Amino acid sequence: MLVYLWSRRNPYVRMNFFGLLNFQAPFLPWVLMGFSSLLGNSIIVDLLGIAVGHIYFILEDVFPNQHGGIRILKTPSILKAIFDTSDEDPNNNPLPEEWPGGFAWLEDQRLEG
């Protein structure tokens, strides 16, 4: 499901499968299903993931953007109350950003220049 959803939300990403097959991201779930069948595995799980991912994609990304469309899938308010923090909360301190590789690259450039 997650592979299908990612591939539909990133349609222009070019993919390469083992250096043999070049394709765009929307075909990734189908390529993985084909590879799974080549290995002799059942494709039922792959087909189920594609079906559930497609239903979620339609309900979350396509239907709400249509004329007169509404969001059918909404987060329950009890979960929002438990996990959502207010932006105005004075105790809400976001974690500091980590630099790639644990090294402050931009800070060294500022010191040199």
Automatic annotation (TrEMBL):
UniProt-listed InterPro entries: DER1
Keyword ATP-binding assigned to the entry: answer is no
Q: Transmembrane ranges?
A: 12-32, 38-59
Question: Which residues, if any, are the signal sequence?
Answer: none
**Main site of residence?**
endoplasmic reticulum
The source's superkingdom equals: Eukaryota
Q: How does it sit in the membrane?
A: Multi-pass membrane protein
Q: Could you tell me where this protein is found in the cell?
A: Endoplasmic reticulum membrane
Known Pfam families for this protein? DER1
The record, for PANTHER family, names: DER1-LIKE PROTEIN, DERLIN
User: Its function?
Assistant: Functional component of endoplasmic reticulum-associated degradation (ERAD) for misfolded lumenal proteins. May act by forming a channel that allows the retrotranslocation of misfolded proteins into the cytosol where they are ubiquitinated and degraded by the proteasome.
Family according to the record: Belongs to the derlin family.
What's the name of the protein? Derlin
- Origin organism is Saguinus oedipus
